[in-house]
Amino acid sequence: MSDTALLVFDGRVLELFGSVDVHRWHVWQRPRVELTEGRRPTMVITLGRSGYRLTMPYDPQHLPGLRELAALLPSD
Fold first, then answer.
1. In terms of CB atoms within 10 Å, which end of the chain has fewer, N or C?
2. In this structure, are residues 58 and 46 in contact, taking their beta carbons and an 8 Å threshold?
3. CB of 9 within 8 A of CB of 23?
4. pLDDT tens, residue by residue, 31-74
């Protein structure tokens, strides 16, 4: 994430605010967060049922929080 975007999970819905639009993914859609590190850190949100993918950069200082949030999402 960045200082201009917010990713929130309340146990039922994963929400992204501050991107071009507001995005909401419900747990039944099986959202998954994948994080890559390196020169251009990237977060990919994938929906298990549809295969939809949203890719966006994140600031490295947010990596610990993003990892925590990703661990809260239900896995298959």
1. C
2. no
3. no
4. 999 999 999 999 999 998 788 999 999 999 999 999 999 999 98
